[in-house]
Amino acid sequence: MSGRAQLMWDEAVTGYDFGPDHPMDPVRLALTRRLVDAFGLDKDVEVVAAKPAGESTLRLVHRQDYIEAVKAASMDPEAARGAYGIGTMDDPAFAGMHEVSAMIAGQSVGAAEAVWRGEALHAVNFAGGLHHAMPGGASGFCIYNDASLAIARLLELGAERVAYIDVDVHHGDGVQAAFWEDPRVLTVSLHEHPRTLFPQTGWPEETGAEAAEGSAVNLALPAGTGDAGWLRAFHAVVPELVADFRPQVLVTQHGADTHFEDPLAHLAVSLDAQRAVQVACHELAHEYADGRWIALGGGGYAVVEVVPRSWTHLVAIAAGREIAPETVIPEGWRQEVFARTRQLAPARMTDGRWPVSYAGWEAGYDPADRLDQAVLATRRAVFPLRGLLA
Question: Is pTM, for the whole model, over 0.90?
Answer without folding.
Answer: yes
